[in-house]
Amino acid sequence: MAGLIVLGVMGGIVVLVLLWAIGAYNGLVQLRNAVKNAWSQIDVQLKRRHDLIPNLVETAKGYMDHERNTLENITKARNLAQNANGVGDQAKAEGQLSQALSSFFVVVENYPDLKANQNFLALQEELTSTENKISFARQAYNDEAMHFNNKIEMFPSSIIAGMFNFDQAEFFEIEDAAERAVPKVSFS
Predict the structure, then answer these.
(1) Is the pTM higher than 0.70?
(2) 99-155 pLDDT, tens per residue?
(3) Distances (CA, A) of 158 to 20, 41, 151, 162, 169
(4) In a domain, 183, yes or no
(5) Structural domain of residue 121, as residue ranges?
(6) Number of domains comprising the chain
(7) CA-based torsion, 124, 60, 109, 80: positive or negative
(8) Which of 101, 116, 113, 7 has the alpha carbon at shortest distance from 52?
(9) What ranges in the chain are assigned the alpha helix state H?
């Protein structure tokens, strides 16, 4: 009789451990998928950004004939960003694109006719709106990545994460010091 009780207790413990392992695994899968979903939201906004840039550049070309270098830098940065793979490469390429766009908008200040062009203003407003959406999507992605990484590193789910090779999610970080710098505003 005592052997049956011990066997029952052992079986119960095994079942509880198995249920915990299944729950932990499913929780990690759910978080990994949330990270992937958050990344896809960034990707959607980046595609929108990449689609808007050629229209903006084409609109500006007629006004900015001698600013070809600025326009070419935007095009190059856009192409690099479109071909980037992985979170780190994408973050770096998007930082370069943001810098090129910032330079472009500084140059635009010298062209009052361009600044007054309704098509240009509409494109600029759409791009600004998209930049805001990208910022929110980056923040949401990094929040999901942090939550997932915490779960991977914290005991006891770290045991399941190690057994099933769950890798940490990479954060979408700004690498370029120029992008971190506060923009200079001058009215002179």
Answers:
(1) yes
(2) 888 888 888 888 887 877 888 888 888 888 898 999 899 999 999 999 999 999 999
(3) 13, 27, 7, 6, 14
(4) no
(5) 41-170
(6) 1
(7) positive
(8) 101
(9) 2-61, 68-82, 86-108, 112-116, 118-153, 157-163, 177-180
